[in-house]
Amino acid sequence: MSEQNSSSTNNVIPCSECQAGHMHREYIAYYTWLGDELITVPDFPAWVCDICGRCEYDENALTRLTLLLSPNAGKNLTAGLKVHKKENIKSKLQRPSRPD
Description:
- The chain is an alpha+beta fold and 100 residues long.
- The chain has one domain (10-92): Ubiquitin-like (UB roll), CATH 3.10.20.
- It contains three helices and four strands.
- The chain has helices at 2-10, 59-69, 75-93, and strands at residues 12-14, 22-34, 37-49, 55-57.
- Strands 1-2-3-4 form a four-stranded antiparallel sheet.
- It starts with a helix and ends in a 7-residue tail after the last helix.
- Mean pLDDT is 78; it is low at 1-9.
């Protein structure tokens, strides 16, 4: 029983806004602008105060989302693979010349 209580207290932090409430982990909609596009992410992890309603999005989830929405996401890896693939294809397609 004490293990359950200790695990549930780890998921509650004091509210920095009202100092009376506790921040609980919830899953809410997250909205952000990416250029001229509105991006909506349902069920995004956040901490919400049970008294004043203050909402703080989970830092780990924000970091991961930022990496996914980055304009450079995947470019370095894919560009490197394409170059290597083309070089390999060219080297395989070239036949040695025959002596005349």
